[in-house]
Specification:
By secondary structure, the chain is of the alpha/beta class. It has twelve helices and eight strands. The longest helix is centred in the middle third of the chain and has 20 residues.
Length: 346
C-alpha cells in the first residue's frame, strides 16, 4: 500500500503523535475485564445465575480463535518459499502455490476460485491472479476479507520480502480460513480474497495500483455480487511489533465505529486509533467507490523514520520477519474475528 497522499499521511501521523503524548496514558483505556472489582465480579456471577440471558451480552468476546503464533509461523513458511513475490517471478508462482495448497478442501468443494486477468500496466501487459475462497454461511449476505500477496515490481532488485506488507496478512487470512473450515459460519458467508497487483508496477497512480481489486470490484459489480457484500475488510501491515491500527478516513464510518467496539471487547483498545490517516489508497477503495461498506485495518506507522528512510521499514529491505510479532498478529486476528461476530449481530 502507498498513496499519492503519502506525504500528507505522514504529516498527519506525525502531528497526531506529538499531540497524543499523554503522561497519564489516558488513550490506553483499560479493558472492561481488567477494571471490574472483585465485588462486581461476584455480583455478575450471582446475576448470571439468576438472569443468564441478561448477562450473556456482557461475556467478553472470544479471543485466540485464530492463533497469532500460528500466523507468525505461517508467515515464516511463506517467506521461506516465496521471499520475493513480484509479478511473473518464481516467488510469485510459489506464493500462488502456497495459497492453493492451503485450500485443497475448499477447492474440492468448488469453493476456491482463481480469477485470472490481464492488467494493462505502464510496463506492458501482465497476467495477474486473484484467489477467492468461500465459506458459505446461513444468512444471506457476505463478509469479505481481503489482502494482497505480491511484492512490488519496482523493488524486485532489492531484498524486499514484505513480511508485514503482504506476507503476514496472507498468512492471517489462511489461518482464518482454517478456523472457518472447522467452524462453518453460522451467520453471513465469509469469503477470503487474496488479490494480486495491489502495488504499483512503476509508480503509484490511480491507474498504476490496485489492479486486482479494481478488476474484482468491476467484475462483482457486473454480476451483482457487490449487492450481497455486507462489509469488505482489508488486512494490510497488521504485524508490526509496535502495533497501532490507524483511524482511516477512507473507511466506512460505521465499520470504524465497530472496530473500536471490537478493540474494547477483545481488550485491545490500546492498540488502535492513536493515529489517523487521510486520503489513503489501498485495496478497499475500488469497492468503496462502488458503494460497498469497507474497512482498512492497517498500521501505516512502521519502524523508525529517518531522513534515509522517511517511511520507516515500509517498502524497504528492512520489512523482515523480525519486525513483526506473534503478539501483534494475535491482536489483529482477534480484531478480525470480533469484527465478523459484530457485523453478524447488527
Ligand atoms: Zn506495500
Amino acid at each position: 500500500m502507498i498513496s499519492s497522499f503519502d506525504q500528507l499521511n505522514r504529516a498527519v501521523i506525525l502531528s497526531e503523535r506529538s499531540e497524543s503524548k499523554d503522561p497519564e496514558g489516558a488513550q490506553h483505556a483499560p479493558t472492561v475485564r481488567a477494571s471490574l472489582p472483585h465485588t462486581c465480579l461476584t455480583l455478575l456471577a450471582v446475576l448470571a445465575l439468576l438472569f443468564p440471558h441478561l448477562t450473556l451480552a456482557q461475556k467478553p468476546a472470544p479471543t485466540g480463535q485464530v492463533s497469532g503464533q500460528a500466523v507468525y509461523s505461517l508467515t515464516q513458511q511463506l517467506l521461506d518459499v516465496a521471499p520475493k513475490r513480484f509479478n511473473a517471478s518464481p516467488g510469485h508462482l510459489a506464493a500462488e502455490s502456497f495459497i492453493k495448497q492451503h485450500f485443497k478442501p475448499e477447492a474440492a468443494k468448488g469453493n476456491f476460485e482463481t480469477d485470472e486477468f490481464t492488467a494493462n500496466t505502464p510496463l506492458g501487459l501482465q497476467t495477474m491472479r486473484n484467489f477467492i475462497v468461500r465459506y458459505p454461511g446461513k444468512k444471506d449476505g457476505v463478509i469479505v476479507l481481503a489482502t494482497h500477496y505480491e511484492t512490488n515490481f519496482p523493488l524486485r532488485n532489492i531484498a524486499f520480502v514484505g513480511a508485514n506488507d503482504g506476507a503476514c496478512t496472507t498468512a492471517l487470512l489462511i489461518e482464518i480460513g482454517a478456523y472457518f473450515r472447522a467452524h462453518p459460519p453460522q451467520g453471513y458467508s465469509v469469503w477470503l480474497v487474496f488479490d494480486d497487483g495491489e502495488e504499483a508496477v512503476r509508480a503509484w497512480t490511480d491507474s498504476d495500483s490496485l489492479y486486482g481489486t479494481r478488476h474484482l470490484a468491476a467484475k462483482w459489480y457486473a454480476d451483482g455480487t457487490l449487492k450481497r457484500i455486507k462489509a469488505l475488510i482489508v488486512a494490510d501491515m497488521i504485524g508490526d511489533k509496535d502495533l497501532n491500527i490507524d483511524q482511516d478516513d477512507q473507511s466506512t464510518p460505521w465499520l470504524e465505529d465497530l472496530l473500536l467496539v471490537a478493540a474494547k471487547n477483545t481488550g485491545h483498545a490500546a492498540n488502535i486509533f492513536q493515529h489517523s490517516i487521510q486520503g489513503l489508497g489501498d485495496d478497499h477503495i475500488p469497492f468503496k467507490k462502488r458503494g460497498v461498506p469497507v474497512l482498512d485495518i492497517i498500521d501505516l506507522d512502521y519502524g523508525p523514520q529517518t531522513s534515509a528512510a522517511p517511511d520507516g521499514y515500509h517498502h524497504t529491505a528492512q520489512d523482515t520477519i523480525d519486525k513483526i510479532s506473534p503478539q501483534s498478529l494475535q491482536i489483529s486476528a482477534d480484531l478480525f474475528m470480533e469484527m465478523i461476530r459484530l457485523i453478524n449481530q447488527r
